[in-house]
């Protein structure tokens, strides 16, 4: 797919490594696990939003924008990477943080991603949970325009067809890495939220006829809704690219069994996954996305969803900055594990 016909800035240190998880694979007795290190994209402590922002900031600059406006949860990794990318390109940034996680403590509200948003110089506004956040974005954009700015609005998670191009690129990068080392990839698994990552991956893999199924582990929405969101965005991305034929809707598969109490609410499985990957492979997951995604992968492995000789790639989408916002629950879990051993 010819992605360089879209406006783009370089933000990602790519290709990100594709690494075997040898110790964890041995511990579990298969399948063969690999991890695609999109937590190491290189901008502002990394993560999947950096790839989307290459195309989003590219379009903003092409439109002569002066001011980036976006939104997310208080601990949004997307917001952190967006304000860093804006700083790098001399654009102002206003961000709307939705108080989506009930009963958040002071650490959640002040540390982790939100601290970094402050360091990057973003104007931060808060919104209570339950508003139409995209409508809020439009209203702030109008306010900025009236004040003489040229706003560029980025939806939550950077998930529109332009942002999803970043994951079409990632899919192509993954295929190239697999071909280079003669690795047959049987499954790709990752955490799915605002749907842009999964939509881009599926379009990139299907558009290249890679025949690699993708499973998104939902961190918020129920399965049907998540699949619908991914499919709608994938269809629009397919059309933006002008790929012939219809987007294969059946390539979209999500699993919402690992959301637990809701978006950003810790689960036992997440706590176990974070600790296990750290202690076997020295790799940090995050409490909101990749920790739940990996918890889902571990549970599905234990339930025999994959053959022992299959090669499974987990796309690590980043987010470890969020660990610092969840210090009390993570520290408690580590202390309990120490006591039990
Ligand atoms: C945003 C995010 C995701 C989910 O990606 P979407 O494109 O929003 O589905 C997964 N992991 C991390 C760490 C994220 O920040």
The oligomeric state is: single chain
Q: Which percent bin holds the helix content?
A: 40-55%
Q: Count the strands?
A: 10
Shape: globular
Total number of distinct structural domains: 2
Any idea what the CATH architecture of the largest domain is?
Answer: 3-Layer(aba) Sandwich
Mean pLDDT: 97
Residue windows where pLDDT falls under 50 for at least 5 positions? none
The helix-and-strand class reads alpha/beta
**In angstroms, what is the radius of gyration?**
19 Å
Write the element-wise H/E pattern from the N-terminal end onward.
EHEHEHEHHEHEHEHEHEHHEH
- Termini gap: 51 Å
The major pleated sheet works out as: 6 strands, mixed
Question: How would you sum up this structure, described in words?
Answer:
- The N and C termini lie far apart (51 Å).
- Helix content is 44%, strand content 16%.
- The protein is an alpha/beta fold and 341 residues long.
- α2 packs across α7 and α10 (268-281) crosses α11 (290-302).
- The longest helix is centred in the middle third of the chain and has 20 residues, at 161-180.
- The protein is globular.
- It folds into two domains: 18-46 and 160-340, Rossmann fold (3-Layer(aba) Sandwich); 48-154, 3-Layer(aba) Sandwich (Rossmann fold), CATH 3.40.50.
- The strands form two sheets. It has a six-stranded mixed sheet, with helices on both faces.
- The structure holds pyridoxal-5'-phosphate.
- Pyridoxal-5'-phosphate (PLP) binds at residues 47-48, 77-78, 157, 159, 191-198, 286, 289-290, 317-319.
- Pyridoxal-5'-phosphate is lined by residues 47-48, 77-78, 157, 159, 191-198, 286, 289-290, 317-319.
């Amino acid at each position: 797919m010819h992605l360089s016909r879209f406006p783009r800035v370089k933000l990602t240190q790519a290709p990100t490594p594709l690494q075997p998880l040898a110790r964890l694979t041995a511990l579990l007795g298969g399948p063969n696990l690999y991890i695609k290190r999109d937590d190491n994209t290189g901008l502002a402590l990394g993560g999947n939003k950096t790839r989307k922002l290459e195309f989003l900031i590219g379009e903003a600059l092409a439109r002569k924008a002066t001011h980036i406006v976006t939104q997310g949860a208080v601990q949004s990794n997307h917001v952190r990477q967006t304000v860093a990318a804006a700083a790098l390109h001399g654009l102002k940034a206003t961000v709307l943080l939705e108080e989506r996680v009930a009963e958040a403590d002071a650490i959640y509200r002040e540390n982790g991603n939100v601290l970094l948003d402050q360091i990057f110089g973003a104007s931060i506004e808060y919104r209570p949970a339950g508003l139409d956040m995209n409508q809020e974005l439009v209203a702030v954009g109008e306010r900025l325009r009236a004040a003489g700015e040229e706003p560029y609005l980025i939806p939550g998670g950077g998930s529109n067809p332009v942002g999803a191009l970043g994951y079409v690129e990632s899919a192509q990068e993954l295929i190239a890495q697999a071909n280079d080392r003669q690795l047959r990839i049987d499954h790709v698994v990752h955490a799915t939220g605002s749907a842009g990552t999964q939509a881009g991956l599926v379009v990139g893999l299907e558009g290249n006829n890679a025949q690699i199924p993708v499973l998104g582990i939902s961190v918020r929405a129920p399965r049907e809704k998540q699949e619908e969101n991914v499919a709608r965005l994938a269809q629009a991305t397919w059309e933006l690219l002008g790929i012939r034929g219809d987007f294969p809707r059946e390539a979209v598969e999500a699993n919402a069994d690992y959301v637990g109490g809701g978006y950003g609410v810790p689960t036992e499985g997440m706590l176990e996954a974070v600790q296990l990957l750290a202690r076997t492979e020295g790799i940090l997951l995050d409490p909101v996305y990749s920790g739940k995604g990996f918890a889902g992968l571990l549970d599905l492995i234990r339930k025999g969803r994959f053959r022992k000789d299959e090669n499974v790639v987990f796309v690590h989408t980043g987010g470890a900055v969020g660990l610092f916002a969840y210090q009390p629950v993570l520290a408690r879990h580590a202390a309990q594990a120490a006591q039990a051993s």
